[in-house]
Amino acid sequence: MLLEQQAVLLLVGILAGIACTVVNIASLISYPALLSMGLPPVVANATNTVSLVFTGFGATLGSRPELEGQRSRVIRFGAINAIGGAVGAVTLIVTSPDVFQFMVPILVAGASVLLLLQPRINRMAAGPVSSDCDAGDHFSLLSMSGMFAVSVYTGYFGAAGGILAVALLGVVIDEPLVRINAIKNATNILANSTASVIFIIAGSVHYGAALPLAAGFLLGGGIGPLLARKISRGLLRSLAGISGLLFAAKLGVEGYG
User: What's the pTM?
Assistant: First the structure.
């Protein structure tokens, strides 16, 4: 990969890392960038997932105040994410690349719609403040199964997985949205990490692209929480959502035409 392309991926990673912590849309920025540089869909997805691990580390470091007192939740939900991420990655590896290529326009379009609907999803997810870490948590087989399904999706593709995770965590946890989002950032590390191990073993990662993108994700994920109160989330969400729909349409025309 050319040095100029790596520089672009570094900048893309910074932007996507910031966007991930603000409106949970990293993959809608980084995945198209990888495709535009000629990476096959499965390789682009695997490379993106490996790089996303570093967004989680950056975002978690930047969200330490919101994570205070939530260790037990991070461990509990992290375990579900770790297993689900591995299952999703294995599913991607063992199925035909043609299946993933067929699904990508649908997944990108769905992720873009979820992004545009995120304010409504956030209102549904936000719960009352709880004074005790586990007081008011509402665990059920259905909610845990839902979180597992989201983590499988994250391991398989991942775009908008953060939005779904925030919505489900909001059903289970009685906490302000900012603390719920911090838990999502911390636990998504494990979903992406286990998926990354699978992709690395399978030889599906383009390291020349992954390294600069990961560096950008780490930087963007770290400064994202600091900029969250200053960035116009509505504008960023609208631009990314509309761009995602246009990109999905382009992929659909190329793949289904």
Answer: 0.80
Q: Tokens 């995602």 label which residue? A: 244
pLDDT > 70: what percent of the chain? Answer: 87
Cβ 90 vs Cβ 198: under 8 Å: yes
Say if residues 62 and 174 touch (Cβ distance below 8 Å).
Answer: no
CA distance 121 to 180: 13
- CA-nearest of 168, 190, 154 to 56 is 190
- State phi, psi for 211 to the nearest 5 degrees: -65, -50
- Residue for token digits 């994250």? 154
Residues 6+ apart with CB under 8 A from 235: none
Residue range(s) defining the domain that contains residue 244: 3-256
Distance of CA 56 to the CA centre of its chain: 9
Across 136-152, average pLDDT: 79
Q: Closest by alpha carbon to 108, among 253, 251, 2?
A: 251
Structure-token pair, residue 84: 């689900």
Token pair, residue 171, equals: 């059903």
DSSP string computed for 108-152: HHHHHHHHHTHHHHHHHH-----SSSSTT----HHHHHHHHHHHH
Reference 50, options 199, 188, 164, 234; nearest CA is: 199
Structure tokens at 202: 């399978």
Contact 53, 189 (CB under 8 A): yes
Using one digit for the tens of pLDDT, what is the confidence trace for 110-127? 878 877 887 776 666 554
Which residue, chain included where needed, has tokens 């994202």?
224
Main-chain dihedrals φ then ψ at residue 177, nearest 5 degrees = -60, -35
Angle of CA points 215, 221, 227, to nearest 5°: 130
Indicate the number of domains in the chain: 1
Give the Cα separation of 257 and 252 in Å (integer).
Answer: 7
